[in-house]
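Holo prediction. Input below; ligand is thymidine-5'-diphosphate.
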Amino acid sequence: MDIELIEFDVKGDKRGSLIALEDGVNTPFDIKRCYYIYNTKQGVRRGFHAHKNLQQLAVCVSGSCRFFLDDGEITQDITLNTPNKGLLLKGLIWREMYDFSDDCVLMVLADQLYDESDYIRNYHDFQNLVQQKTTTRHE
Ligand code: TYD
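Structure of the complex:
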């Protein structure tokens, strides 16, 4: 699956911790957008989509949440519970986020501006696209 867990350098001292993410220095792509999900109600599951052409780096800067990931062949479950690790999502991956703690702040960096036409929100469309890509690869 086209994912990676990236560990960030922590500038810690007796006052506490600080992490800096700088375009082109320690980020895997040039950042065009940052958004964050917080105040998520108990039991909520969100996401339910894949992207045609988008890289994202998800960092749980507070609390914890889980990602269910599916690339059409295998599935993976990842827990994010520390601000010093980022989950890099590339390629065609169906994602669902769940088990948000009350204090969860999920920050996401992206390499493109928000574009609804880049979303695949229907699971069957996602499966079809995976199938198309696999067929093209084997031709
Ligand atoms: P939505 O896609 O439902 O969130 P998720 O799939 O992560 O559960 O997004 C909720 C709303 O926010 C929807 O109206 C689109 C809007 N939105 C933006 O305007 N910009 C963004 O960068 C994102 C991620 C969402």
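The chain has one helix and ten strands. That is the main takeaway for now.
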